[in-house]
Each structure stands twice: as structure tokens, then as C-alpha cells.
UniProtKB/TrEMBL annotation:
It holds the Pfam family Pept_tRNA_hydro. This is Peptidyl-tRNA hydrolase. It comes from Sporocytophaga myxococcoides. Coiled coil: none annotated. The keyword Iron-sulfur does not apply. Keywords: Hydrolase, RNA-binding, tRNA-binding. One of its GO terms (molecular function) is peptidyl-tRNA hydrolase activity. SUPFAM superfamilies: Peptidyl-tRNA hydrolase-like.
């Protein structure tokens, strides 16, 4: 997933979709578990997948929804953490956060990024 730019660019060109009409959804260790952040543009925040998309597209101007997974891992264990299993509590809460993310994507598709951000970017 760290080399996502090529795939995003391929589908944008194949389907003739402008960058402002895509939604990249990614995990994010910089956000606490279950926190959602939607933005219409911005830096990659150190996320390799977002960085590759930015590099291939030549722009930071594409919508993204970051899904917080937390950072409860020891040094050097980031990959194991991100690709590992949810705790039982996280797994129990997951449908709530997924529903909110789905609602955010639907809002993006129907009412636009600005208003969708207002529904998703809450505490």
C-alpha cells in the first residue's frame, strides 16, 4: 500500500476522474484509534501511501479520510502493529467507527468535501 500512487493515477485516468472527486482512505498511526479526519488537501503527514500518491499526482490536492489506528507499539514494531489484530475492545468498537467513515464517504459523494468534513471531523 505504500506505493498506491500508480494505482490511483491509473484509475483516475481510466475513469476520467479529477483528483478532487476521489477519496483516499487510509490508516493513520498519528491519530488515536477510531479518530477520523477528512481533508480536501494537505501534507502526507509522514504516511508513505499518501506520500506516494502525492508524488505520482504531483499535488497534495486530493481528498483523503484518515482512520486513526493509534500508536500502541514498541520501537521497530510498527508493521506488526498496523498489520496485526485488533484488541477485543477495538474489534467491538470497530463497527461504530466504520459506520461513521461510511457516512463520511457518502456525505463527500453527495454534499461535497467541505460539508462532509463538518460531519466527520468531530470528537
Amino acid at each position: 500500500m505504500n506505493l498506491s500512487g500508480k494505482a490511483v493515477n491509473y484509475w483516475m485516468k481510466t475513469l476520467n476522474v479529477f483528483a478532487e472527486n476521489i477519496m483516499v482512505i487510509t490508516d493513520d498511526i498519528a491519530l488515536p484509534y477510531g479518530t477520523l479526519r477528512m481533508r480536501g488537501k494537505g501534507s502526507n503527514g509522514g504516511h508513505n501511501g499518501l506520500g506516494d500518491i502525492q508524488k505520482v499526482l504531483g499535488s497534495e490536492a486530493y481528498p483523503r479520510l484518515r482512520f486513526g489506528v493509534g500508536s500502541e507499539f514498541s520501537k521497530g514494531r510498527q508493521v506488526d502493529y498496523v498489520l496485526g489484530r485488533f484488541t477485543s475492545k477495538e474489534f467491538e468498537e470497530l463497527p461504530i467507527f466504520m459506520d461513521k467513515a461510511i457516512d463520511g464517504v457518502l456525505a463527500f459523494c453527495t454534499i461535497g468535501i467541505e460539508r462532509a468534513m463538518n460531519t466527520v471531523n468531530t470528537k
